[in-house]
Specification:
eleven-stranded mixed beta sheet
Length: 415
């Protein structure tokens, strides 16, 4: 361990420019050898102050032994800075993982422990350690390079598929999101009860999968079977009520229907840590591009907090998940009861437990039934929060055929 720690110090002292690279992986807390930790603290402090750092300046500013530092310089090539920094980071991850496993073993040994919840917490913690490959620090150059890479990726996607993000299958939503679900963004689909939130999320999920974009779905309200029954209705045209009741030979009418591969469903995840662990697993194994969570207020977190605080913590956790996994996360949200006491379009402030949810969201799409026709509902789409551009109610409405669980943009089917 100390060899890698000494190596990264030697590389940076040899060439101070290597600090910009190494510091993307490590900071002083990653050093286990106390003298090296103090050296790295002083190196970082001096470089950030614009000073040139070598063994002499470290002796003058921190009393560090110049002969030891000279040996580190002599025995290390500056080109090894990145490799040594990553070795130091891996050692930190190893220690952190062992600590999590030790704590988990002690927790599970307690007969009063909820074992399933303890396993979920452990999975979430381990996935977080495994995916923490950067401290989040960026120089102007690295931030510019990342921005240009994202711009090129969006432009290439726009040229090839006509959209900059993951396609939703509904033009008004594509327009509201600036070209589909965008990576590292947290979106909400919100509406009053029985407006079709789950159905529209399924429509978007299966459409994305049909275009080659793998999708994850966390379903808390229903089973995976119930979700797929809805999608079979939408694809086949067999009424959903016939499917769930077995009427009119529904089984024979849908048994040969194929649904797109690439949609992965977990109908057992309840705790936010387990959701994060599952999403990380799907990203690693299947490279999912979007995660849908149905729905936000049913996700559990720290039960020692108020419900509003829990929901806010979950929302910010899912926002961090989107950034860490480089995916879009779409959460389905209920509106509060006050919204049901009045007519008209819903408001952003009417999100249930809304305070911290609003802060976490990058985009908020609201559905509003303009009519209550039991067969085909006219649904307005409101883009009520949008970090990327304009907000407002979209000019083109949607139609929801509840009997068939089908959504379309008016005059254009996209099922």
């Amino acid at each position: 361990m100390s060899e890698a720690e000494g190596g990264v110090i030697g590389a940076v002292l040899h060439d101070n420019a290597q600090w910009d690279i190494a510091s993307q992986y490590i900071d002083a807390n990653d050093f286990t050898h106390a003298p090296y930790r103090r050296v790295w603290e002083d190196i970082s402090r001096l470089i950030q102050a614009g000073e040139t750092v070598d063994n002499v300046t470290l002796y003058e500013n921190g009393g560090h032994d110049p002969s030891i530092l000279g040996d580190l310089i002599a025995n290390t090539a500056p080109s090894m800075a990145s490799r040594y920094a990553q070795l130091v980071q891996r050692n930190t991850q190893r220690r952190a993982a062992l600590a999590v496993l030790t704590e988990s073993r002690q927790r599970i040994a307690n007969p009063a422990t909820d074992v399933a919840e303890a396993i979920a917490d452990t999975q979430g913690s381990l996935e977080g350690i495994a995916d923490n490959r950067s401290t989040g620090y960026h120089t102007s150059d690295t931030a510019l390079a990342a921005a240009l890479a994202d711009i090129r990726e969006a432009a290439e996607a726009k040229r090839n598929a006509g959209l900059a993000g993951v396609p939703t299958g509904l033009k008004p939503i594509n327009d509201a999101t600036g070209g589909g679900w965008r990576k590292q963004m947290l979106y909400a689909i919100a509406a009053r009860p029985s407006t079709g939130k789950t159905s529209i999320a399924l429509h978007c999920a299966y459409h994305a999968a049909s275009k080659g974009y793998p999708v994850g779905v966390i379903e808390i309200e229903m089973s995976a079977s119930q979700l797929v029954q809805r999608q079979l209705s939408a694809i086949s045209g067999v009424p959903y009520w016939d499917i769930v009741t077995g009427r009119n030979d529904a089984d024979r009418r849908v048994e040969k229907i194929q649904i797109p591969p690439g949609v992965f469903i977990d109908d057992s995840a309840r705790h936010v840590n387990r959701i994060m662990a599952r999403a990380a697993e799907w990203k690693r194994k299947h490279d999912i591009r979007t995660l849908f969570v149905d729905h936000l207020t049913l996700v559990r977190s720290d039960e020692n907090q108020s419900r509003a605080r829990q929901v806010g913590e979950v929302a910010f956790g899912l926002k961090e998940l989107a950034k860490r996994l480089n995916i879009a996360v779409v959460i389905l949200c209920q509106l509060n009861r006050e919204s049901e006491k009045r007519e008209g379009r819903p408001l952003l402030s009417e999100l249930r437990d809304s305070g911290e949810i609003e802060e976490a969201l990058d985009g908020a799409l609201f559905l509003h039934c303009a009519n209550r026709d039991p067969s085909v509902r006219s649904v307005e789409l409101g883009n009520l929060k949008n970090r990327m551009g304009p907000v407002g109610w979209m000019p083109q409405p949607l139609e929801f055929d509840a009997a068939m669980q089908r959504w379309k943009a008016v005059q254009e089917w996209r099922a």
